[in-house]
Design a protein that fits this description.
207 residues, mainly alpha, 9 helices
């Protein structure tokens, strides 16, 4: 099926399916660690892989639904969408938005909000779910960037995430995979599961 003919509900279902697959993979890793089939270092590495795969799937998801909304495809609720673009196809919509930029960034939540305000009337239905979850999206993006780049710049942003959680920067900086297994405050869930849950809820409200 051509991308221009895809429905929002299909993109949503595919994303939910991928999140479930990654959640099952994480559960298997947890069991293997408890049974000593995995070392702690291996568990941390696999946790990073799961998180990065989920984030990449999320970037593809928001790209696809955003471009479909620019074609005025209706969300699952059937609400009317008003786009300021008049693309001929899915690819044409992406070309119009990208213009002279080398690539379109779908990982930065502020950029997505600005894009929604620019191309969709009242930013609907993208703006509100994003602004509601802006702080969490910003945090997880910083973790994603440190996994991807492992640079001095990404480390500084990752330290901000650590400080937000601990109240101070730890003397021994954990690897992202180790930190993603830290329990949330006042919750039994660790951060990877919180991220997967956020993605599940966000995609529901976006569609």
């Amino acid at each position: 099926m051509g991308l221009s003919r895809r429905k929002i509900k299909t993109v949503y279902k595919d994303f939910q399916k991928e999140l479930k697959r990654l959640e099952i993979f994480d559960s298997q890793n947890q069991r293997n660690y408890v049974s000593r089939k995995l070392s702690k270092q291996q568990l941390h590495l696999l946790t990073e892989i799961i998180f990065f795969a989920a984030f990449r799937a999320y970037e593809n998801f928001i790209r696809d639904i955003f471009l479909l909304y620019c074609m005025e495809k209706k969300p699952r609720t059937g609400s009317r969408i008003k786009s300021y673009l008049r693309p001929k196809t899915f690819d044409h919509a992406e070309e119009l938005i990208q213009s002279s930029m080398p690539f379109l960034d779908w990982a930065n939540p502020e950029t997505v909000v600005e894009r929604a305000e620019l191309y969709l009337e009242d930013g609907f239905p993208v703006k509100t779910p994003y602004t509601t979850n802006l702080a969490a999206l910003r945090t997880f993006r910083r973790i994603r960037n440190h996994i991807a780049h492992n640079s001095s710049s990404s480390l500084q942003d990752f330290k901000k995430v650590l400080k937000d959680h601990y109240g101070t920067i730890p003397i021994n900086i954990p690897k992202p995979g180790e930190f993603l297994l830290v329990r949330e405050k006042n919750s039994a869930k660790y951060k990877l599961l919180s991220f997967l849950e956020l993605m599940r809820e966000l995609s529901h409200h976006l569609t």
